[in-house]
Structure formats: structure tokens, C-alpha cells
Amino acid sequence: MSQRRGVPRDAVHHPLFARFYARCGAAADQRAGVAELRRALLSGVTGRVIEVGAGTGLNFAHYPGTVSEVVAIEPEATLRRLARDAAVRADVPVDPVPGVAEALPVKSEAFDVAVASLVLCSVRDVRRALAELRRVLRPGGELRFFEHVRAAGGGLSAVQWTLDHTVWPTLMGGCHTWRDPLAEIRAAGFEVVHVRRLKVPERGPTLPTSPAVLGTAQRPVD
Questions:
Q1: Element (H, E) at 90
Q2: Is the Cβ–Cβ distance between 56 and 74 less than 8 Å?
Q3: Which residues face 113 on adjacent strands?
Q4: With the C-alpha atoms ordered 186, 141, 127, 56, is the resulting torsion angle positive or negative?
Q5: Which residue from 48, 66, 47 is spatially nearest to 106, judged by alpha carbons?
Q6: How far apart are CA 11 and CA 76, in angstroms?
Q7: CA 75, CA 53: separation in Å to the nearest integer?
Q8: Most CB contacts within 10 A, which of 27, 80, 204, 213?
Q9: pLDDT at 30 over 70
Q10: For 74-116, what is each residue's pLDDT tens digit?
Q11: Nearest to 39 by CA among 49, 27, 29
Q12: Is the CB of residue 49 less than 8 Å from the CB of residue 63?
């Protein structure tokens, strides 16, 4: 794997959030039904995969045997260490490496599938991150995405905007709830093939992070 020069190995540092997520992430996934959504996100994936913002590796257990390799990009050192442990337990080869979504340390057109799972909310530059994902996918390759989205209703949308401009990103590891990743995916030149709108968790109170989308997009064949 060819790495670009000048990319900070630990460009993201959220030690308090990382420890909280390491302790509670898997349990929260189960309670909110997110583990099942991760399984749906990765169903049918084949070939060589790049996953951005891999976190502690909660997706790794859901990759099917048709995957030949997963290059898992995670910039936060604490989370990446835990991802390495999860990679050892995975049924497919997984290589957690440092890097940021806005400057992926891999060659162009090297992957069949890219996975963005609850990460576009926290990258510093969504457009640049999506441009990088488009770069590293082969023509015709897939982008699988599962992301928080801006609420359609005015009340919740206003709450999201307020949180994003005050305490939420600081408390939640850079997360922004008011972004519109689906629009950004289309603007980046991907063709959205399938999208499913969700409320997470499906039952119970509506949270700022509840509106979500899960789907597949494709890099057009140039």
C-alpha cells in the first residue's frame, strides 16, 4: 500500500470521547438496533474494501466472506488500538491504519467498495473526504453509507443546528448532527442507487442523531 507523504498519523485526538465510545459503543449499538443496521450495510459486499473512520471496529464482524481485504482508516489512536484487537477476531483480513478521510493514504482506483459508517458527521471537510473516496474507488465501485442526517422537521432541525454550533461537536468527538451527507454524496459525483431513511433507534425517544440514511451509491464508469 502506497502512502502519501505529509499526512499526520494522529490528526484527530478526542481522548475523552474515545474512552467513552470504547466502553459504551458496542452496548449502545445493541440497544439502538445499530448492529443490525451495520449488518445490512455490509450485506453482499465483495472484493477489496476501504472503510473510513473505523472506530473500534464494530463493523468488522459483519463483513461477509466474499471480502478479500479491508483497509480500515482510523485517525484516533485510542480507537485504532481497539480496532486492531477487533481485526484479529474478524473473519476476513482487516488492516487498521492511521489516516484521515480527507487525505487517504492509498492509491487511486484501488478498491471495489468504500464504507462510510457514522463518520461523515465528524470529518472536518465532507466534500474533500467524499472526493477522496471517489478517487480510491475503481470506476463502477460502490460507496456503502450509513449516516446521521439533518431532520426534515423544523423543530428537530433547529435543535440540531443549535447543538452543532455549541456543545455537541466538543462532547461527541467532532460529530455534527445538522449535516446533509446524502446531498453531499450526490454533489461529489456519486450516483445514489438505493437509500433507506431511518429513525435510530426505531422505537423510543427521538434524539438529535435519530434521523439517518442507509444506502448504496456508485462511482460512475468514466
A1: none
A2: no
A3: 49, 142
A4: positive
A5: 48
A6: 7
A7: 7
A8: 80
A9: no
A10: 998 888 999 999 999 999 999 999 999 999 999 999 999 999 9
A11: 29
A12: yes
Total-model pTM: 0.88
- Report the pLDDT value the prediction gives residue 7, as an integer from 0 to 100: 38
Closest CA relative to residue 137, chosen from 104, 119, 114: 114
Residue-wise burial string across 15-31, b where 16 or more C-beta atoms lie within 10 A, e elsewhere: eebbeebeeebbeebee
- Taking the C-alpha atoms of residue 119 and residue 146, their distance in angstroms, rounded to an integer, is 9
Rounded Cα–Cα distance for residues 218 and 141 (Å):
6
Phi-psi region of 11 (alpha: psi -120 to 50; beta: other; left: phi over 0): alpha
pLDDT tens-digit readout, 154-177: 899 999 999 999 998 888 878 899
The answer to whether 124 and 103 have CB atoms below 8 angstroms apart is: no
Q: CA-to-CA distance for 213 and 103, rounded, in angstroms?
A: 24
Decide if 96 contacts 80 (C-beta within 8 A). Answer: yes
pLDDT at 169: 87
Neighbour count for residue 174 (Cβ, 10 Å): 17
Range list of β-strands (E), 21-110: 47-52, 67-73, 94-97
As a dihedral over the C-alpha atoms of residue 129, residue 181, residue 195, residue 222, rounded to 10 degrees, the angle is -40
What does the chain come to in residues?
222
Name the nearest CA neighbour of 191 among 142, 130, 120.
142
- Tell me the β-bridge partners of 137: 111
Residue 191 C-alpha cell reads as 450516483
Q: Which amino acid, residue 136?
A: V
